[in-house]
Design goal:
The chain has helices spanning about 1-50, 85-95, 115-120, 135-140, 160-165, 185-195, 200-220, 250-255, 270-280, 295-305, 310-315, 325, 335-345; strands at about 55-65, 65-75, 80-85, 100-105, 145, 170-175, 225-235, 240, 260, 280-285, 320. The protein is of the alpha/beta class. The protein has 2 domains: about 55-215, Rossmann fold, CATH 3.40.50; about 220-345, 3-Layer(aba) Sandwich (Rossmann fold), CATH 3.40.50.1980. Strands 7, 8, 9, 10 and 11 form a 5-stranded mixed sheet that branches. Strands 4-3-5-6 form a 4-stranded parallel sheet. Strand 3, helix 2 (about 85-95) and strand 4 form a beta-alpha-beta unit. Helix 6 (about 185-195) packs antiparallel against helix 7 and helix 7 (about 200-220) runs parallel beside helix 13 (about 335-345).
Length: about 350
Amino acid sequence: MITAMILVLAACSSGGSEDAKGSSQQAAESSATNAAADREKTDADASAEAETTYPVTVSNYTTENGTWVAKEQTFDKAPERVVANTQGAAELMIRLGLTDKLVGVAALFGSVPEDIADEFKKIPVLAEGYVGKEVTIGASPDLIMGRGGLFEDADWGVGTVNSLNDMGIKTFVQSTSVTDASLDSLYKDITELGKIFNVQANAAAYIEELKVREEALKARASAETINYASFSDNGDGTIAVYNGNGDTFIESAMSLINVHNMLINETGTLSLEKLIEINPDVMIISRYAGGIDPQETIDKLLANKQVQSINAVKNKKIYVIDFNNFWGYGDSIFTGVENLADDMGL
């Protein structure tokens, strides 16, 4: 009897197991079907969201009494004639597939990335250096975009935001170039440009690419904090110390590898004595078109007996960066930080 009961229980257990397997398989198939349907719906929703419905309004900037404040810009259609007031702004447009919209670029102070060099050559150059308002308007733009500090009524400026808007010309100030900017500001700029030009899918895809690079840089971060100071050549044989007080975007990017600007909270002109006092681990000098060869300036610094106590000088940890990568306020900040990490052996 005991043997018979065992056999009966085994049979019931086996049947229950087979039933459970069947139910489990059916549930899995149903779940997979539902997941596929959800993915199709999500893709369809994403596709719908990737289309801009005009008119579209984005939040941007203007200045009031020297302070950046919010100002909306409304677009009835995608702009057709765009002037980029810096090389970095033009490069960002190219990355989003918008080369054909550019009718002018200025401030060509650094290297153009090889992978977009041919596209960049298609853009009319309004000025090798900074471009003035008259020349800018002469290109008949319907949008002027780029670095905020160049939206001024000056020989080197494209005109103020308000004056250009009064003329019917839309403006887009890169949020990376205004107060309290960070890498999130770059992602915001890309998203907003995606809306304005109806290339939202391109913008989203490019942000994902950049975020992968962001994570890769974080993985390379120095275990110990590395403090740096920037310097340049005054052109008269003396060294200029740069505080980088407003360059929070650069600080945000450099912090990915745990490298920080020691002078970011300093104001005014800084002396060589101040540099000796703060004693940076690393010193950085930028290379830009038309400027003094940075190696000449480095040689002067290394030969200066007054600064021999500075750690960066003692250990010869002085690095050259590309001006456009860091002061183009665009996506090439990643290339700049990656190159610096390479040079520093991170």
